[in-house]
Specification:
heterodimer, A: 184 residues, four-stranded mixed β-sheet, 8 helices, B: alpha/beta, nine-stranded mixed β-sheet, six-stranded antiparallel barrel, 16 helices, 38% helix, elongated
Chain lengths: 184, 516
């Protein structure tokens, strides 16, 4: 967890430079690509984490993969991270950067878990309501989980908006346990 | 078991489940990163407060103690094996609190206020946080009313006032708990009509048992019940088998219970039995939370641990109702070493201490109070005048006796005055011996000490002193009942009363001498 301070420093500096250079959009898409690739390829990630592979080699590999697909500024950042021997954190730095960027642009990432797939109309209604409550632009990420029985849970940072039947049943169970409902 | 009909259940379910759609519950969550040894590190819970209660799965409750940069350190009040890595933790937005009120009297509860005596739920909706700030200077006043412990040696020489903090310290098996239990039993008198007519306000008691065997606690509760003291007492228990966090918060819970009475113009007596075990529990907790260890591996804030607890004892100013919280913390020493870390800390915090010694205990002086080094720094102001008068000469006589005690071996080689001092001292020590669970009302204490210090016992063999005291008190009770009544009402020994007691004592001595 001591890493989180490091992540924060690298990610903030990348965000600030890209704001200065006015190329936030380009850098964002570059980093998105980088994070996605690293997530998809376990081998690439473990190569970066491996202390056996020399940093120069790591840089060469990354250059070969990305140099044609991402901008020069982003590549410079990757090179910088490797030169500081933080290449194992590249993936998480990227994720942190995307979070900071969303924060900066006032976008809230909302993770919605629902029992059944929402229709587009429902999604729009939910988005509208959440944007009103949070006073931010909302990006929805959907996931289904049958354990909820019904309803949905929306997660914004650490706060849950819980409208699931599972939660209601849990509350009911607690009421029975504490004797708030008596059977006679 | 009451029978439950399925149709009733479905009716209730239907009733509860209607209005279902509109309910969206909003709460904050975190994720368990690491769990073990009763400590959980949680990621998330970003707005959580220190000492806030949090909910883990399987109804395990925890309390937030460490707020770190990236994670939150929680202690668990339940089984840590029921919580797994990756589990969701919910905020309750409630700092640790306990139900308070007169409804808790006669009950045995755990430090979170959950009854464990099988007498059902506690019907009170008043909750107070267990960690509360101590009062400031303006809200307080010096102690002025006595807490009678019913133990002659304490009430005469180490008096305790309402709102005082008096430490009971000694090795294991020296009768520390016995002193405290006797003090509780003696408060029964304050709840009688007679006490009310004399203007003595009732004292409500809280006994906090920390890290003791459950069987010992059961024994204490049974004794209190037997002597009718449970009606005005709450027992807070965190037994030895319970997780360290519960043992750590137990005294604070007890203090909160006592504060309810104090803040409502009533009086309370809280006993913390014992704080050395609480300090050990806190040490365990702190080390698991990776706080740096200091002397004897206790964390740096172990002084604050006890000072913030004992500072909550106080006598309120008359504007605030004049209530009081008297604290009797107990500390167990190892081999009589009072210069260890925790004993010195608590000695410096409290307003005096009662030393119990195993050598005295083993030589038959029970309660085994070493009156030479026991002190009460403020209790003297609270003593009633009559007691002050007789106790003055008692202290002096005993001090002289201790000085000459070493010469007692020489027997007849000593001069007359030395012999006289030694004789009197031996009789006074004998007089201050007292059985357990037999508290003596203050007016009887005064009369027996009067008889002792004025030399009425000097001509009686030491072995007969206890019998003399018993029979003398019976004689006074039957023939001179007015003496006790005057003492109770006027609380002072006037010249006439002094003469009256002397005459009665002479009368009794003549009768008694025939039986020796």
């Amino acid at each position: 967890m001591a890493d989180s301070r490091i992540l924060h420093r690298y990610a903030t500096s990348l965000l600030e430079t890209s704001l200065e250079k006015n190329n936030l959009e380009v850098v964002t898409s570059d980093i998105q690509l980088l994070v996605e690739t690293l997530n998809q390829s376990r081998e690439l990630q473990s190569m970066l984490e491996s202390p056996v592979v020399r940093p120069e080699l790591k840089l060469n590999i990354l250059k070969e993969i990305f140099s044609k697909k991402i901008s020069k500024d982003s590549m410079d950042f990757v090179e910088f991270v490797i030169s500081k021997n933080r290449e194992s954190l590249l993936n998480t730095i990227g994720k942190r950067f995307l979070e900071l960027r969303d924060d900066h642009l006032g976008i809230a990432n909302v993770f919605v878990t629902c029992a059944t797939e929402f229709s587009n109309e429902q999604k729009n209604v939910l988005q509208g309501r959440l944007e009103k409550i949070l006073d931010k632009k909302v990006r929805l990420n959907f996931k289904t989980d049958l354990n909820l029985v019904g309803g949905f849970i929306a997660k914004v940072n650490d706060t849950l908006y819980d409208a699931s039947i599972r939660h209601q049943l849990e509350l009911l169970r607690k009421q029975f346990l504490t004797g708030e409902i008596s059977l006679n | 078991m009451a029978e439950v009909r399925p149709d009733e259940i479905s009716a209730i379910l239907r009733k509860q489940l209607s209005g279902f759609e509109s309910e969206v519950d909003i709460y904050d969550v975190g994720t368990v990163l690491q769990i073990g040894d009763g400590i959980a590190r949680v990621y998330g819970l970003s707005k959580v407060m220190a000492t806030e209660l949090v909910e883990f799965p399987n109804d395990v409750i925890g309390m937030v103690l460490n707020l770190d940069e990236d994670s939150v350190g929680c202690v668990l009040f339940g089984e840590s094996s029921l919580v797994k890595e990756g589990d969701t933790v919910k905020r309750t937005k409630r700092v640790a609190s306990i139900p308070v009120g007169k409804e808790l009297l006669g009950r045995v509860v755990n430090p979170l206020g959950k009854p464990i005596d099988g007498k059902g739920a506690v019907n009170t909706d008043k909750f107070l946080p267990i960690e509360r700030k101590a009062l400031g200077v303006i809200q307080r006043q010096p102690v002025k009313e006595p807490v009678q412990t019913g133990i002659a040696a304490i009430d005469a020489m180490i008096p305790i006032g309402r709102g005082q903090r008096e430490l009971i310290i000694g090795d294991r098996q020296t009768g520390k708990t016995a002193v405290a239990i006797d003090a509780i039993i003696n408060q029964k008198y304050t709840h009688t009509e007679e006490a009310k007519s004399l203007g003595i306000k009732p004292v409500y008691c809280v006994y906090v048992a920390i890290g003791q065997k459950s069987s010992t606690v059961a024994q204490v509760v049974a004794k209190l019940q037997e002597h009718g003291a449970m009606e005005f007492t709450t027992v807070v228990v965190a037994s030895a088998w319970e997780p360290a966090p519960l043992q750590y918060i137990a005294p604070y819970s007890g203090a909160t219970l006592g504060e309810y009475f104090r803040d409502n113009g009533m009086h309370s007596l809280v006993i913390y039995d014992d704080l050395s075990k609480q300090a050990a529990a806190y040490r365990e907790l702190s080390l698991l939370l990776r706080r740096p260890p200091g002397r004897e591996a206790y964390p740096g804030d172990v002084f604050y641990l006890h000072s913030r607890l004992l500072e909550r004892a106080s006598k309120l100013s008359d504007d605030l109702g004049g209530g009081s919280l008297t604290a009797l913390p107990i500390i167990e020493t190892q081999q009589g070493d009072v210069s260890a870390y925790i004993p010195t800390n608590v000695i410096s915090i409290t307003d005096g201490q009662i030393y119990l010694e195993s050598s005295l205990f083993n030589s038959g002086v029970r309660p085994a109070i070493n009156v030479g080094i026991s002190v009460s720094r403020v209790g003297g102001n609270a003593q009633i005048k009559a007691m002050k008068k007789v106790a003055g000469s008692l202290k002096l006589d005993l001090a002289q006796y201790r000085e000459l005690e070493a010469f007692a071996k020489f027997g007849s080689d000593l001069d007359q005055s030395t012999l006289k001092t030694l004789n009197k001292g031996a009789r006074l020590v004998e007089l201050l011996k007292q059985d357990q669970y037999a508290p003596i009302p203050v007016e009887r204490q005064i009369v027996s000490i009067f008889l002792g210090t004025k030399g009425y016992m000097d001509s009686i063999p030491v072995a007969d002193v206890k019998r003399f005291e018993k029979e003398a008190l019976e004689f006074f009770e039957v023939k001179h009942k007015d003496i006790f009544e005057t003492l109770r009402k006027e609380k002072d020994i006037s010249k006439q009363l002094d003469e009256k007691i002397s005459n009665a004592a002479n009368e009794f001595l003549k009768v008694f001498k025939k039986t020796v």
